[in-house]
Each structure stands twice: as C-alpha cells, then as structure tokens.
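batch job 7 of whatever, protein = MFS transporter
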Amino acid sequence: MNTGAILDSRYSWLRLLITLAIATVANVGMWAIIVIMPAVEAEFGSGRAASSMPYTLTMVGFALGNLLIGRLVDRFGITLALIGAVAATASGYVLSTFAPTMAVLSLTHLLLGLGTAAGFGPLIADISHWFLRRRGIAVALVASGNYLSGAIWPTLLAGLLESGGWRMVYFALAAITVAVVIPLALLLRRRVPAEAYAASDAASALNARSTGMSARTLQWLLGLAGIGCCVAMSMPQVHIVAYCVGLGYGPAVGAEMLSLMLLGGVVSRILSGLAADRLGGVAILLIGSVLQCIALFFYLPFDGMVPLYLVSALFGLAQGGIVPSYALVVREYMPPKEAGARVGFVMMMTILGMALGGWMSGWIYDVTGNYQMAFINGIAWNGLNILIIGYLLMRSRPQKPSATPSIA
C-alpha cells in the first residue's frame, strides 16, 4: 500500500468535513457563558470578576479535557472519546440550569468545559493523522470549528435568550449536542492503519533533530508561549460583550462584534493553514502573534461603535491562526503516536492562558473601573509569546514532506 492511498486521500477529506461539523456543534459550550454573562451577572448580583468565574472554570475544564481526552483518543480512538464527552457536556448544561448561586454555576461549568474539550484538541489530533502534505489546512479547518461555533450559535440563540432566558438556552444546547454529535461520531470509527504512521513519523523525527531540543523541552516552551498569547487573546474574546454593555451599546452589539471577530478568525485560520503547508507551523505562529499584538494596540485609542466593529474584525483576522499553529508545530516535531497527548498538553496550556486572562481582565476592571489596563496587560503577555516563538524559529528548520514513500 502507498501512503497516498491513506494520507491526503478522498476519505481523508470526507472525514475532515464530518469532523468540522462535529467541532461546530461540540465547541459551543466554550462560548455559551460569554453570551449569557450579563444576564447571569444581573441575576446573581455579582461583580465582573465573580461573573467571569464560570468562564474561567469552563476553560480550566476545557484545558484538562484536551489533555485527558487526547490520551483517550491515542488509546481508544475518537468515537468512544466523543460519546463520553457528549455525556459530560449535556450534563454540564442541564446541571447549570439548577445552579442556585454563582459558585455552583461555576462548578457546573467545569464539567461543561471538560466535555466540550473533545471538540477541539482531540479532533485536531485525530484529523492530523489522515494528512501529511495538506496537514496545515486540515488542522486549520478543524480548528475553525471552534470559531464557527462561537460566531454562529450566539446569533442563532439570541432570540431564545431574550424570550426564554439563559436556562432555556442551556436546555436547547444539551439536546442539540446529543442529537448531532453522537451520530456523526459513529462515522469516525475507522482508524489509520499502523503502517501509515511511517511517513509522518520520519518527517517529524527529521524536524526534531534540527532544533537540538528534546520533545519534552519543546513541549514546555510551546506551553509557556501558549499561555502568553492566550492571556492576550482572551481580553477581547471574553469581555467584548461586557465591554460593549459598559460603553452603553448593549449586549446585542457586543455579540455581533464577537461574531465578527470569530468569523475573521475563521478566515485567518484557513489562510494560516494554507500558508503553513509552505512555511511551517513555527513561522506562521510568529506572524500571527505579532499581528495579534498590533491589533490589541488599536483597542486602546478607540471606543466608538464603528471603530470597535473594525478593530474587532482586524483582531479576528490577526489572531485566528495562532492556536492551530501550536498543534501543527507539535505534529511537525513530535512522534505521531503521541499526537493526542502532546497536542492535548499544548492546547491545555493555551486554554489555561485563556482562563487566566479571562479572570485577570475582569479583576483589572473591578480594580480600575475600565478595561484600558486589561488591554495593556494583554499586550505585555503577548510580548512574552513573541520572544519564545522567535527563539524557536531561530533554532528550527522544518523539513517539507518528501515524495510519498511506499509502506508496503
């Protein structure tokens, strides 16, 4: 058998479409709390930092889920992992509707985040096994499911939120997740034959030698960089709705800006994926990090409605390709049989950065009464990320996949 019959094949692209559909539904658990945050804050009478805690614990669960479910994917395959994750996600939604306090609501979101994680890192790791030459665009498209989810579902659920309240929204999301993800997950039972790992294993080993670093060292460097970039990324993504409410524009305007930001992120991820197939994940990661830092600066002088729409679109276009690039770097430099665990670890660190940044920005707002210092804090963390990735780029020279070898 030739690797061309398995990797980058027609089946690979069909699997990619199914995976993207799953990601678009499964990832909504990451964004739901952002949309309902003003309603929750008003109901429980909490401050901005306290009302950010459900999001923070969602991201903590999401982070742990990327690591734990990633390990399960390495061992049992993606289908069983997804079915178990759906049970956790649906339970998180339903239990949240019975929460009597903000503290209890935060704990239920830990479970919700844990299950939602299956729609991100584990799906990215799984699809990466089915591509070699076009892995960049494949990973970018699956990662785009996360942003498509955030761009599409808040708008679709806005009417239900207004008429039925946030609890009705959560009941609806529980039902939709079960009805859509489980049937699609059953279509992904096929697994890559063991011999098909040979080509990607050879490519990653060649790249790893070029860095002079162990896989563990590289993994931790990527993790630290991921925290830095995602603390910065979280400021607009987590607080844009609350920011617009504070400016007097209302939650609907904030939700539109979030959707615009995330749609820009989808475009960015696709373009970054195409470019990564030529330039490599490290170079694209550095470019995205620099562009994100520039975009964050534009939030400082502008707070008018029209400028905020433009800056939010620019921010989405700047940063969308960053997180998928971490997964690409892992797959370019580390063994494929460890993909679930390695990708899961790095995704966990990026998500912990989002969780930390989401809480930190709320705390800064409570202390200062505005978001200016929160944006500056994000810019500083972004600088740490740029330094690390710049250092890694100087040390690494990724090799492009060679002509398709015979494996049997």
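notes: The longest helix spans residues 215-246.
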